[in-house]
Amino acid sequence: MEETFFMIKPDGVRRGLIGKVLERIERRGFRIERLELRSSVSQTLIDQHYESLVEQPFYPAIRDFMMSGPLVVGILSGESAIASWRQMMGATRPEEALPGTIRGDFAQAAPLGQTIQNIVHGSDSVESAAREIALWFEKEH
Ligand code: DAT
Ligand code: MG
């Protein structure tokens, strides 16, 4: 059994996709260990979450997007949960995400000049899962 951190980003909440995402999680047989709607998150938390991206020129747009509305965060557990949830999410860029994945079925290609909005997040390794779970659920905000 493995745990992973997941998120429904502000575009997913805004577009009314919480139920559809959670339905796929349940259908797939993951256990939902934690689940919270966060109505606002601090810039510090988002910067820590995306610490590997903060130096990128496109990062300010990502930060603004991530702070643009409520988001849902949670912890899933299951067999190979990290890789399995990443597969369910699909590729980062909506135009590359395969049909059948969450991003492939719901995410819309960003208009020119706008940041990628791809509905969901999932930890990409054992190390990042541990780090993100601690960051979102074990620290006081
Ligand atoms: P993923 O979300 O698939 O794990 P990532 O961790 O590389 O992808 O990037 C985090 C988010 O940042 C991603 O969901 C969308 C945004 N992003 C990544 N690369 C980008 C780029 N080159 N231009 C704009 N936004 C980008
Ligand atoms: Mg990532």
From TrEMBL:
Species this protein is from: Streptococcus himalayensis
Limits of the Nucleoside diphosphate kinase-like domain: 1-140
Cofactor: Mg(2+)
InterPro entries: NDK-like_dom, NDK-like_dom_sf, Nucleoside_diP_kinase, Nucleoside_diP_kinase_AS
Catalytic reaction equation(s): a ribonucleoside 5'-diphosphate + ATP = a ribonucleoside 5'-triphosphate + ADP; a 2'-deoxyribonucleoside 5'-diphosphate + ATP = a 2'-deoxyribonucleoside 5'-triphosphate + ADP
HAMAP family on file: NDP_kinase (MF_00451)
Binding site for ATP: K9, F58, R86, T92, R103, N118
Gene3D superfamilies in alphabetical order: Nucleoside diphosphate kinase-like domain
Enzyme class name: transferase
Subunit structure: Homotetramer.
Role this protein plays: Major role in the synthesis of nucleoside triphosphates other than ATP. The ATP gamma phosphate is transferred to the NDP beta phosphate via a ping-pong mechanism, using a phosphorylated active-site intermediate.
Family to which this protein belongs: Belongs to the NDK family.
Record's subcellular location: Cytoplasm
Pfam family, one: NDK
GO molecular function: ATP binding; metal ion binding; nucleoside diphosphate kinase activity
Protein name: Nucleoside diphosphate kinase
GO biological process terms on file: CTP biosynthetic process; GTP biosynthetic process; UTP biosynthetic process
Keywords, alphabetical: ATP-binding, Cytoplasm, Kinase, Magnesium, Metal-binding, Nucleotide metabolism, Nucleotide-binding, Phosphoprotein, Transferase
